[in-house]
Amino acid sequence: MATPPELKALQDEARGRIDAAADADTLEAVRIEWLGRKAGRLTALLKSIKSVPADQRAEFGQAVNALKALVTRHLASREAELGAGTAARPAVDVTMPGRRLRLGRMHPITRATREMVEIFGRLGFACVEGPEVEDEWHNFVGLNIPPAHPARDPLDNYYLTDNALLRTQTSTVQIRIMENHPPPIRVVAPGRVYRPDTVDAGHANMFHQLEGLWVEQGVTFADLKSVLTTFARAFIGPDARTRFLPSYFPFTEPSAEFYFSCLLCGGSGCPACKRTGWMEIGGCGMVDPNVFEAVGYDPETVTGFAFGFGIDRAAMLKYGVKDIRLLFANDVRFLRQF
Ligand code: 2U9
Questions:
Q1: CB distance 213 to ligand 1 below 6 Å
Q2: CATH architecture under which domain 108-335 falls
Q3: Residue pLDDT, tens place only, 206-248
Q4: Which residues neighbour 132 within 8 Å (Cβ) at sequence distance 6 or greater?
């Protein structure tokens, strides 16, 4: 059992060692020497308390614990002093070699969008963007989608308030352009759209669309076919062919679904195109006169065509991606392939 003078000597020795520590590493070594859990000198003293005769145990225990508290406090204040000293030194060693920056790659959706916008740019289309949170007028009313239309069902839309929702198509952008600019208009509008679909390999509840609109005196369905066929040849290859099948959309009349010859087999038939030789790409048609009236254009003087397709789907067909969820998983092993 250490006597009080011995404890005092230990205290002085510990204080001296702590004061002499010139840096954080040395101080840590001192802390381990004195308070280390296995072999610390004070730790050993603390462990010895239980073997002191009962009548002296309380007094000795108090003295040793007081010594431990003192040493602990002194260690902390020296640590703070040393910390303040290092903070005064420059935080960055400019002589160290730099850390190599790992650049990512362009996401396949961005790459596809840019390529598409560039192709339409060569055909005279300007690229325009608009808000993702829209009102009912721009998302439905202006597009000739009446209140009772199933597309307006609250279960098929992400409504934020009674009159605000996440847009379900980028047509809202063309409506805004026509509201604010007189004809002629020749624009493409790429962007994110939202629908509460059940997510599976082919569907996501957020995806990307590219829509196009050309309004001018004398624009015809032949121009629509010509633009989409020229686009197909630039996007897929010079041998690409297009096919238009009658369809219905509230905002176009007449309307059609358009197909490209299969991106994989070129049209001879393969599993990817279910042996038809064709892949459905999107929808299109001549802008409905009601839409022109809604934005203040005179349907008697201008005509126009519009088209829309999923960028994700087109990119998946072109790059051979089988599951749309891969596009949004943020997995570098997938993204590095592009
Ligand atoms: C205005 C007027 C008409 C754009 C069009 C489609 C047909 C169409 C879908 C294809 C797959 C969207 O990505 S998808 O789910 N689109 O079928 N879109 S005509 O028509 C417009 C656009 C703007 C002012």
A1: yes
A2: 2-Layer Sandwich (3.30)
A3: 999 999 999 999 999 999 999 999 999 999 999 999 999 999 9
A4: 166, 167, 191, 192, 193, 194
